[in-house]
Amino acid sequence: FLKEQHSLVYKGAILIFKNGTFLQLPDIDCSRTPPFLVLLVTSSPGQNEARMAVRQTWGKQRLVTGKRIMAYFLLGTTENQNEQTSVTAESQKYGDIIQKDFLDVYYNLTLKTMMGIEWVHKFCPQSRFVMKTDTDVFVNIFYLTELLLRKNRTTRLFTGFLKMNELPIRRISSKWYVGKDEYPGSTYPPFCSGTGYVFSTDVASQIYNISESVPFIKLEDVFIGLCLAKLKINLEELHSEQTFFPNRLEFSLCRFKKIVTCHYVKSHEQLLYWYALEKLGDEECPDI
Ligand SMILES: *[C@@H]1O[C@H](CO)[C@@H](O)[C@H](O)[C@H]1NC(C)=O
Ligand SMILES: *[C@@H]1O[C@H](CO)[C@@H](O)[C@H](O)[C@H]1NC(C)=O
Ligand SMILES: *[C@@H]1O[C@H](CO)[C@@H](O)[C@H](O)[C@H]1NC(C)=O
């Protein structure tokens, strides 16, 4: 009974959520200027400094080998009126915020990710690839673009840091605790770490379409994994070497030239790493 009740409540939640309107929409007409890669960056209302760091670095609108890269921030709402007002002002100034009416808390991350996927499906199906990542992740968009072009795939691609055999954490004190009522299975389907995953844009529409019939789980990366399993889309490595790091990496220019993501990066580090990569990137590195 509990299980049924849980999935009924959340089935309702996803449906209502899908029908909700966008409070903030970015300034872009994808049919006129289709991006090659859309970066969807989860962020919370109070993290404006982290958003500024991303805007100044890997999230700045630019062409990489002629391919357009755009970054947008995914935000929920806050009960703090001042913060809410400043998000609206920030959206008007930078035109890069996507927001719907749901409370911006960790346990609503699945709704936040689904909002980004809905936006791509409805407003930017002309893009080629989508990446979902976070403001405390460093993204080497140069290497990512190179690898996507080299991969030469335009449909049913899903890649990132693959987690093929994760088990639900049943320890109640854990941040990632999931009860048996929420997820009764003993293993999760394959999924990619939520710190950074990349997919071809057709996958966004397919996930959006199937999401209502997938049991809700608050872990957004697992939820996407459940959708992919239902769609029979397999996860793939982008490169034979590891390039997505869900952990922190010590900075070295030669190392960072050959990674796509690493985690736990502070705003001032975003600026340092980016400056090194963009300005000193031609420095010789040993072949690895
Ligand atoms: C998620 O957002 C909804 C809509 O604002 C809210 O009712 C709900 O309490 C939020 N979830 C959590 C766990 O706070
Ligand atoms: C990319 O894939 C297409 C179709 O699968 C193929 O025709 C083309 O030769 C490939 N290009 C490269 C550079 O491998
Ligand atoms: C959406 O899902 C329905 C069945 O659930 C399927 O018939 C339809 O082809 C799907 N559409 C897309 C765009 O995937």
Automatic annotation (TrEMBL):
Q: Which reaction does it catalyse?
A: a globoside Gb4Cer (d18:1(4E)) + UDP-alpha-D-galactose = a globoside GalGb4Cer (d18:1(4E)) + UDP + H(+)
Q: In which pathway does it act?
A: Protein modification; protein glycosylation
Give the record's family classification.
Answer: Belongs to the glycosyltransferase 31 family.
Per its record, how is this protein called by name? Hexosyltransferase
- GO MF terms, alphabetically ordered: N-acetyl-beta-D-glucosaminide beta-(1,3)-galactosyltransferase activity
Q: Which Gene3D superfamilies match?
A: 3.90.550.50
What are the BP-aspect GO terms?
lipid metabolic process; protein O-linked glycosylation
EC number(s) recorded for this UniProt protein? 2.4.1.-
Please give the InterPro entries that the UniProt record associates with this protein.
Glyco_trans_31
Membrane topology of the entry: Single-pass type II membrane protein
**Which Pfam family is one of this chain's hits?**
Galactosyl_T
Record localization: Golgi apparatus membrane
Judged by the first EC level, this protein's enzyme class is transferase
Keyword list, A-Z: Glycoprotein, Glycosyltransferase, Golgi apparatus, Lipid metabolism, Membrane, Signal-anchor, Transferase, Transmembrane, Transmembrane helix
* One Gene Ontology CC term in the entry: Golgi membrane
